[in-house]
Amino acid sequence: MAHPNLEGLSLNEEGDEGFVFDFEEDGDEQVDLRWCLVGRFLCERAIHFNSMKIRMAELWNPVKGVTIKEARAGTFLFHFAHPLDMEVVLNGGPWVFDNNTLILEQVQLGMQIEQIPLFHVPIWVKVHNLPMGLMKEEVGRTLANYLGSFLEYDKNNNSSFWRQYMRIRVRMDVRKPLKKDTRMKNKEGEWCTVNFKYEKLGVFCFICGIMGHAENKCEVRYAMEQDDGTREWTEDIRAEPRRQGGRTVSKWLREEKGGREVHGGGDKAAQANVLAGSQSRGPTNAELAGNGQEKIPTINQ
After folding, report:
1. Nearest Cα to 196, choosing from 133, 101, 120, 129?
2. I want to staple 171 with a disulfide (CB 3.0 to 4.6 A). Which of 149, 241, 244, 260 is the partner?
3. CA distance 36 to 90
4. How many alpha carbons lie under 13 Å from residue 103 in its C-beta half-sphere?
């Protein structure tokens, strides 16, 4: 039997340029990846997949539904059946499961999963102690770009003659420490300090200020010769939840335009916030550890 001549044969011959394909979606059989998000949770441990997908679906309530798959360890795909459902999720973040922040990006055709950067998350930030007269969008935009990248200025910032804080939406780099405050000059030319508080903030480190791990997992702490207990960050950078419950009213009190409707001493917005707050908490480790069996978290009504 004659043997083929293998001399000079190479599996990677020089001049082999590889293949180039068209990434346009053709045919009805292909899923529309434009309605697909890729994400990961900012945490050091594995996520309980079955509980997570049920919790996120209940939080999002997509009208046309969502399919959730694990693409690889720690990376998840969220495919929506309608673009409006996807937009609600993208615009409604940050999303938190079991106190871990979810980082989401839209899938781009032609990109490999591992090449999609998952390092940024949108966060609403409250700016406290602003000098009077600086509740302006241009000021908010400047402060947002100092914290990260400007996304949105809350239109309610200017719905009142005075507000306790300015609210801005910022695209944050999770690899960088959270900024606690900054200085600015008031009208008299004196320096004053404004403070930042972050809404729906998940796990973060009091030592290095970076999201995604607690101080017991912090590399900076392990590099210390001795931990003297000093912490640069505290829980003060978490924005306090909005007030819940009823409030006293008076027939002589005039509500401002855009104020919340009150009936019988009850606050509709506050009551809705109670419900939303009860649904935003992911299952705790204790809830998932009973009897070695998977427990599906219940949704508070």
Report:
1. 129
2. 149
3. 11
4. 19
For residue 4, pLDDT beyond 60:
no
Per the DSSP assignment, residues forming a β-bridge with 298 are none
pTM equals: 0.69
Residue with tokens 């459902």: 85
Q: Do 240 and 197 meet the contact criterion of CB atoms below 8 Å apart?
A: yes
3-state secondary structure of 157: helix
Give the CATH number of domain 33-115; options: 3.60.70.12, 3.30.70.330, 1.10.10.10, 3.60.10.10.
Answer: 3.30.70.330
The conformational region for residue 274 under phi > 0 = left, psi -120 to 50 = alpha, else beta, is alpha
- Beta-sheet strand order (sheet of 75-80): 66-72, 75-80, 36-41, 100-106, 95-97
Look at the block and give the residue holding tokens 């938190």. Answer: 96
- State the Cα–Cα distance between residues 37 and 77, nearest whole angstrom: 6
Instruction: Band the pLDDT of 114: cuts 50, 70, 90.
Output: confident
